[in-house]
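All the exercises in this workshop are built on plain-text protein records. Instead of coordinates, the fold is spelled out as a row of discrete tokens. Once this layout is familiar, the rest of the handout is easier to follow. The record below serves as our worked example for the rest of this section.
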Amino acid sequence: MRRLGLQMALFSSVLVLAGCTESPQDELIKGVSSARTAFEEPAPEANKANGDTALYVPGGYELQEPSDDYNLLLTRGNEAFALFLNPNEAPDSTFFYDLQKAIPEEAWLVDEKFSQHGRFGFTTVREIADERYELVVSSGGTKLSTITEQSALRTNMDWMMETVRSVESAQGE
């Protein structure tokens, strides 16, 4: 009898925990909402610099050296985030978005565009392996991309958009 009670308690715990995890679709919807908010709100102030580029890097993330003027690498633990800068592009540039869409066969789980006050931005997500996703966010001539797990999609979309917006803002939006 005691064993049956223990099994029932364990089974109930598994059900409760399973109900607490979000589906990939829920995570993507919340992530897009976070990215949109970060795009529409004022950009955070830059707290790091690389050459002529000032940008916001959240706590716990490192700007790796050496970096050149147009390609930067941010890391946190074993995660890497590639930041690409094209200073020839205006805040309303669709350059990076057009590059993302150059291969029409690629299936994007998220393909969300943002536009506000003469600025253009986007976020795209595609699954590249079981629970591994390519995440790209961009604003104007700045793009940040990474490979991430489902559980980090929402958080990454948010801070990544804040970071690309901060570069644009520091360059004189």
Q: What stands out?
A: Strands lie at 48-50, 53-55, 62-63, 71-76, 79-85, 110-116, 119-129, 132-139, 142-149. Residues 2-20 form the longest helix (19 residues). The chain has a mean pLDDT of 86.
